[in-house]
Fold this protein.
Amino acid sequence: MKKKIIYFLLPILIIYCFYLVIDHNVKNNTQAYFYLKNLVPKKIKKEIRGTIQSFTKYFDKNDIVLEKINDVDNSKLGIIKNYNNKFFNFTGPRAYLGSNEDKLFLITGSGLLYYSNLSNFNENKDVNLKKIKTNILEIFKNYKYDKSDELEEVTMVKSILVHENTMYFSATVKMNEKCYKQKIFKSELNFNKMDFDEFFQIKDCRMFYNNTSGGNIVLFGNSKILYTLGDWKSCQYLDKYPKNFCIENGPQKLNSSLGKIVSININDKKFKYMSSGHNNPQGIIFSEERNIIFSAEHGPQGGDEVNINDLSDRKEEIKNFGWPQASYGEHYGHPSDDIKYLYEMAPLLKSHEKNGFVEPLDYFVPSIGISDVEYYKDKLFVGSMGDSAKEGDLTLYIYELDNQNNTVSKNSVLLNQRIRDLHITNEKLFIFLESTGTISVVNLKDLRLN
């Protein structure tokens, strides 16, 4: 009898121990977890994530808990408070943060929406994220024609914005087999049920899905929204576009929304281009204090950029940041002869200023997988994703700027996780770390920069 009990309990014990090991590694993003994760081929990881996403749909009606895990005493950021829910690895893994006066909102890449009181993140205990019922998944179903496509690939939330009593989110949607678009949806704030309607969409259709679509939205003054629009690799996937498409309809042409940053009037939806010549501007923030739009955009192979659009400089109403004529990166495959034809339409000249474009504040070669930007009292925060700490990925960069927008100092803080989103409110920096599904909170009054 004892042997039977042992034989019965032993597998359970082994499975439980295995769970504890995985749970520890996922929460803490240990080197072992990072190493093993990189060993799994991307295709298999995609299948695993899709399976778990399908499984977690059965639980998405419930509130979720962010478990309070160990604080980190960082030499530059001070005490970092960490709140983890490992299922954000699978219900996203992308997630984006927004806030109003007293609440923090989180929306996953797949469209699940939660909130909690900001004051809860002051405590050293778990934080309950309350689920808000929405019609987002129903909206997404209308844009998903091919059942073989994963939800996150054809209808993917890209950003969230809360202003006054309204919430906005942006998403990439699949209209049909040959039409992909960027859209913004909005709803009045309601903590019981939010019904989103279409607010704004770009006129152009894209012929295939691509991640380089931008999609970030932030407040611009009191009545406008800034919206980043990527170039959908129009100057890199030339075999997928009609001949000369990059030249005639790309980021350098104002007849197309490719590679632009636009402002949208909240009241009448009228929009105008604020800048052109962008590759994939993922991060954006407006500093009213400096009257500057800060943006961060992905380069090709190398050449991620941190850009400044100084609105007090009226030499050009629409600033041109150079892509694909100028870039400090190279086309993927460089220096192979097989991709020389790419340089005929997209030469990637190695100076912006000498070729009539705006120079970046900073650029990275190799790329860091640049993500979001935030601004606070002369300090510009820039996140990075990627997967190689040795190349500068997985790191938070902090620039201190003088009155002429020159860099006084540049600090780097290795977090060893993919930084998907940055959000500042109430003098706190909230960071969504998608490697482990963690929200980290930094008190900006406690920074210890050089």
